[in-house]
Amino acid sequence: MTRLSRRELLGMLAGAWAAAALPPRVGPDVARAAEAPKRGGQVVVGLSQEPTVFNPLRPHIEVDRGVHFGIFDSLWRTDERAQFIPNLAVEVPSVKNGGIAKNGREYTFRLKKGVAWHDGTPFSARDVKFTWELVTNPKFGAFTRVGFDAIASMETPDESTVRVRLREPFAPFLTAWGDAWIVPAHILESVPDPNTAEFNTRSPIGTGPFKFGSRVAGDHLVLVANPAYHGGPPHLERIIFKYIPDLTVLYTQFKTGAIDVTGLQGISAEFYAEAKALPGVTLHLHHSPSVEYIYFNYGKPWFKERPVRQALYHAMDKRAIIEQVYYGVPKPVEGYLPSTSWAYNADLPRHEHNPEKAKQILDEAGWKPGPDGIRAKGGERLSFTNSTTSGNKLREQAQALLQQNWRAVGVDMQISNMPAAVIWGEFYVKSKFDSLMVGIQASVGDDPDCLNRIHSKYIAAETGSGRNVAQYKNPEVDHLLEDGVREVDRAKRRALYVKLQEVLRTDLAYLPIFSYVRIEGVRQGLLHYKPNSNVLHNTWNMHEWGWKA
């Protein structure tokens, strides 16, 4: 079995599509590291939001993905070193192993034999083809169609082989498919409407290392070990996801031992100094590809004006948010990519906190202060709401600071926060908000492609699929994104994404605040917990977790 990094993949696809050497692979079914955990026990993962969408192909949020990693498998996954590792596939396709044709348009997936769904039904190539057909069905509301809609045809000559032909070369093809889970054809192909099937919210069936156990709405979810897992049975008997919306309470429960892993939100920055001195815990401090933004809804009239967006950015005291609210832990950014990305543009203009300039821009754009100090134009007041998750105290403090910043230049921002299950449901997916304070990983893994987040054809409120919840439309951005996925030469691709970041920064499609630095707490004695900045949730390898013997 072999391991293939995305960097090697793009190198192979470039030029004459020369073969790249593959280093030895240590995959999920053999990666039992030097110290083997004991069998049995459980891990309690604390989450600030409640997972509710269990069909990984439906629109969902990050905490849902934490559960998906346990229940479902993909053809391959991305490890903490940004390398692909086989999962349901025997090997990652490459030119060298015959899985990628030299023209870059034909792929062959060779699947593992003997894999079964949790109900005992054999897994086969039919499930892969069904997954593709479901995602590309215009009547199905999909989380993403990127990488799926690049396929012209898919054939299954036998139960363990899938042959794919693309319309044209698509550079992040393996990235897209490594980020997608396979669902069971035998369950979903016969339901009247896959959008409303019980499978989506109550009874998911996967091929993963854990099975859906039980759920108490508003409190916790239990996954139980799958002893017949094709990668070997998990060390743990169960994993419990505990929902604690208040991050202070979540941290307190971690301190007292009620929680073993602090989960996606991690430990809030204000507790970092104390947490470092806690006995019996390990802290993981690492950069994340997620960025904290103010997201605009371009369906609202105020945000369609670039001068308004420019004024809001100049009025924002970004430094105060980072240093006073987040204790200086995260780093300021100007784009959607982390500084560790190979396509990162380090030359973007730096944010300038300048309230007087903000006032001047609004004056020149015709937004004049009214009797109450709030600006208006054509009878429309410059007034809107900003929303985020209730109980996230740091975001609430940042919102209060922004409210003051913007009020000082004549803009009325009202805070309207909601429980996670409400705000990140249709309110978010169907673009019913005015503006959001939200943390988003726009790219997939270490690939800079962000079609699903920014391209105008992926607006769920209009098309039913995609993650462009801001309803942002910019033809130049669309063209750059399309060229970026067609180009397979690394240097040429980088030039396109450098330009893309320039255009987005100039247009201020969103207001970037900082790049996350996660502070994650793990109980000492839990082996093989591996922070991975290439995925949305660090339960990506929960099949390896276990307690020290």
Can you walk me through this structure?
This protein has a domain at 288-517: Dipeptide-binding Protein, Domain 3 (Dipeptide-binding Protein, domain 3, Roll). Helix 8 (306-315) runs antiparallel to helix 10 (355-364) and helix 16 packs antiparallel against helix 17. A hairpin with a 4-residue loop joins strand 3 and strand 4 (83-86). It has helices spanning 6-13, 62-71, 125-135, 173-178, 185-188, 247-256, 272-275, 306-315, 318-325, 355-364, 393-407, 420-423, 426-429, 451-454, 460-463, 475-486, 490-507, and strands at residues 4-5, 42-47, 76-78, 83-86, 106-110, 151-158, 161-166, 210-216, 220-225, 238-243, 281-296, 331-332, 368-369, 375-377, 380-381, 383-387, 412-415, 435-440, 511-523, 526-527, 546-547. Residues 1-33 have low confidence and may be disordered. The strands form six sheets. The chain has a six-stranded mixed beta sheet. It is built from 17 helices and 21 strands. Helix content is 26%, strand content 20%. By secondary structure, it is of the alpha+beta class.
The number of helical runs is 17
Residue fraction in strands: 15-25%
CATH homologous superfamily heading of the domain at 288-517 = Dipeptide-binding Protein, Domain 3
What is the number of strand segments? 21
What is the CATH class of the domain at 288-517?
A: Alpha Beta
| CATH fold title of the domain at 288-517 | Dipeptide-binding Protein, domain 3
CATH-derived architecture of the domain at 288-517: Roll
Largest sheet, in brief, is: 6 strands, mixed
Distance between the termini: 29 Å
**Rg, nearest Å:** 23 Å
Give the rounded overall mean pLDDT.
Answer: 90
**Relative helix content:** 25-40%
| Global geometry | globular
Structural class: alpha+beta
Please mark out the parts with pLDDT under 50 across 5 or more consecutive residues, or reply none: 1-33
Which strands sit side by side, in order, in the main sheet?
Answer: 12-19-11-18-16-17
